[in-house]
Amino acid sequence: MVLPQVIILILIGIGSIFRGDFAMFYQVTGNNPLLFQSTDVIDT
User: Rounded to whole angstroms, what are the CA distances from 27 to 4, 21, 22, 44?
Assistant: First the structure.
């Protein structure tokens, strides 16, 4: 009964790894094209 809920929560947690806060990345790197390749995330 609890195992399906645990599996769903783990899958949701793994899926959130690929998300990123665009505003945070833009504030850190600014508009510097040299850093785009190393700071790009899937969500943007």
Answer: 39, 10, 9, 14
List Cβ neighbours of 19 (8 Å cut-off, separation of 6 or more). 41, 42, 43
CA distance 3 to 21: 31
Q: What is the pLDDT of residues 27-39, one digit of tens each?
A: 777 777 787 777 6
pTM of this prediction? 0.42
Q: What are the strands, taking DSSP E only, across 1-44?
A: none
Rounded to 10 degrees, what is the CA torsion of 27, 33, 38, 42?
Answer: 70
Domains in the chain: boundaries: 3-39
